[in-house]
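Hello,

Our lab assistant flagged a job as stuck in the queue for most of the afternoon. It eventually completed. Since we weren't sure the result was trustworthy after the delay, we are filing this so someone can double-check. Below is the sequence as submitted and the structure that was eventually returned. Let us know if re-running is recommended.
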Amino acid sequence: MDQLNTYLIIGAILFSLGLFGIITRRNAIAVLMGVELILNAANINFIAFSRFGGMNLSGHVFSLFVIIMAAAEAAVALAIIINLYNNLGSVNVDDASSLKQ
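-- returned structure --
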């Protein structure tokens, strides 16, 4: 029962949910959660291809880099969101365009 198609379908579902969250949400934290879902979908695909492609470690190494990048992205993005909230009083992404002036 352990097949590559199962992992690819789960990765596609996570990617679709993340993309839907990015496109439809106006809240910056919800957009960040969508980005994290997309990165986790990529991790699932890396690990699945690594496992079914001969058990080499390249997929695991790429997944580790994606996890490190996601942690750095979350730290920087949360700092930006806190700054946005301090300046505007909301975390609505559409309100961020008012900071251009």
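-- support follow-up --
The delay was a queue issue, not a problem with the job. The result is valid. The chain has one domain: 4-89. The first helix runs from residue 4 to 24.
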